[in-house]
Amino acid sequence: MKKGILILARILVAIAAMYLALRKINWQELNQFEWGSSLLWLLPALLAYNVSQFISAFRLLRFYKIYIPGISYSFNLRLYYKGMFYNLFLPGGIGGDAYKIIALKNSGNTYKQVTTATLLDRVTGLIVLLLIVSILTRIVPLQGLFHDFLFLLPIFVILGITCYWLVVYYFFKPFKKILPLAGLLSVLVQGFQLLSFYFILYALQINIGSLSEHALLFFVSSIISALPFSIGGIGTRELAMATGAAYFHFSTTKMISASLVFFILTAISSLVGGTISSRRHNDNSRM
């Protein structure tokens, strides 16, 4: 019962956030978009996004190999895309991370081991994303509420990184040796996702202008969409993008459109997971 209420609440948040975001679209401006050969930029955008996911799956593999030495990249990649499908298209059932944990538990590993590896991978990615945002806040001139809110972010991120390292060092020692590589891979993941977003802007013939401002807006909206308030981040990313666009004096219509296209590319990529066999692999040597 409680789970059903939570799912319903997230659906309502997604609907409300999307409604508020769409209200900010100037439909006359949208009708003036010139849809033409520039849309070919969506192909490298889709490619760049999936490269980011390939790298993210490789990062996750580094964590899994601590407890599952025999797991292969190809098996983990299939598992990763299956998880993407569950996260986006089956929000009312098993989540993507839970699916991976159950699948690997059936390969002879404990829930605690697989859950620990999955959680540390997630936390590493989030900390690196926050670090990137904190760096951008020192590059992009901010004023008002955004300046007051983000001014202390670098301090909190540094404290967070320190605490995270100490926790891993003292309580999860096997993972400490892979943190530097995992951090570097996380930077690459975010870099390719940003590149995908830039390609989308080109496809929509949006004048990028300040790269750093668009990067900050993209990464902040990514953090907000990752919060468990909505289904698959639907609506929350678009609302965050609309709010940031108004702050930076960008076209709200164009930025919301770019955010929706990014979601569509994410959905297309996640659909691949729905076609992948969910057959369990009980023999680690076959992974």
Number of domains: 1
Helix content: over 70%
* Helix count, DSSP H or I runs of 4 or more residues: 12
Rounded average pLDDT = 85
What structural class do the secondary elements suggest? mainly alpha
- Gyration radius (Cα, Å) is 20 Å
Explain what the structure shows.
This protein has one domain (2-20, 42-286). Helix content is 73%, strand content 0%. It contains twelve helices and no strands. The chain has helices at residues 2-23, 27-31, 42-67, 73-89, 96-105, 111-136, 144-150, 153-171, 179-203, 211-226, 236-248, 252-275. Helix 3 packs across helix 4. The model is unreliable at 280-287 (pLDDT under 50).
Which helices and strands occur, and which strands form pairs?
Layout: H1 2-23, H2 27-31, H3 42-67, H4 73-89, H5 96-105, H6 111-136, H7 144-150, H8 153-171, H9 179-203, H10 211-226, H11 236-248, H12 252-275
Helix pairs in contact: 1-11, 3-4, 3-6, 3-9, 4-5, 4-12, 5-6, 6-8, 6-9, 6-10, 9-12, 10-11, 11-12
What's this entry about, in short?
The protein is mostly helical and 287 residues long. It has helices spanning 2-23, 27-31, 42-67, 73-89, 96-105, 111-136, 144-150, 153-171, 179-203, 211-226, 236-248, 252-275. The protein has one domain (2-20, 42-286).
